[in-house]
Amino acid sequence: MESVLSLHKISKRYGKIQAVKVLSLDVLQGQVYGILGPNGSGKTTTLSIMLGLMKADSGDFLWFGDAPSKKSLKRIGAVIESPNFFPYLSAVKNLEIVASIKDLSFDGIPDVLMITGLYERRNSRFNTFSYGMKQRLAVASALLGNPEVLILDEPTNGLDPQGIAQIREIILRVASKGTTIILASHLLDEVQKICSHVAVLNKGQQLFSGKVSEVVAIADCIEIAAENQELLDKTIQSHANFKSLIHSDGKSLVYFTQAIKPQEINEFLFRNGIVLTHLSEKQRSLEKHFLELLQENQ
Ligand code: ATP
After folding, report:
1. Which domains, from first to last, does the chain contain?
2. Does pTM surpass 0.90?
3. What is the Cα–Cα distance from 172 to 282, expressed in whole angstroms?
4. d(CA 19, ligand 1 centre) in Å
5. Has residue 53 got a pLDDT over 80?
């Protein structure tokens, strides 16, 4: 897959505050890449640097394999700040102004209004829009010119549940057309629902990055049962990575000190003379993983 963005050891400091610390990450074409971290973890600073709105103190980055340029920035659409349009002008008029500034034709306007569910309200004035609609108009304006990459900073901040669902649907719709999405969020749930890949930041530093499905799939708990449950419990407690055990529904839920493969447990028990009648992997959520990572780094 083609490289879209490659950040290499980016650092940025505001006086005493180290906002971003030797951050490296790679985004490939078609990925929905989440930059996840609590408030103040350096997400907006990172997005501002990659968009050329701010200079990094050190490190470098490439867009589409090349040094950033005006040409590469034209291939990117971004919503970084809260939506700001002319209040007394309609959605269409506002988009025409944006298109003119970006030197784009007006032909794409109906399309972006359609994608963002604003087509019916295209002639309504901006100041009659709900906050959710304003946010969707900002996404529509970022989509003008059919960018290959869409960058969004906390796109659902301040929205009600319906507004959140609408924005998420739009993001998934845009991603399904092959557009690469880079999304900063402090919401685990959002990243888990929308993103294919994630980098977890804390205090400007990357704690973890990878496929969301892989983070979610890290299992540290296995449910097991055997004919002689008592012997099973006793045996599993002698495993080097055993942490704790609880009984549930005639089975044992066993927690380990680190991610463990079910095959390994099966083999271990078999070697100790136990034939399992049940074995299933319990997946922990990205949330648990994220909270643990934050705790470890406090
Ligand atoms: P949030 O979601 O709260 O915006 P964030 O993860 O986007 O957080 P940044 O906005 O990048 O984080 O901020 C990272 C750190 O840098 C924070 O400690 C913040 O207070 C600080 N910071 C950001 N901008 C400035 C600035 N212009 N001057 C001084 N400190 C700043």
Report:
1. 3-215 (3.40.50.300), 217-296 (3.30.70)
2. no
3. 27
4. 6
5. yes
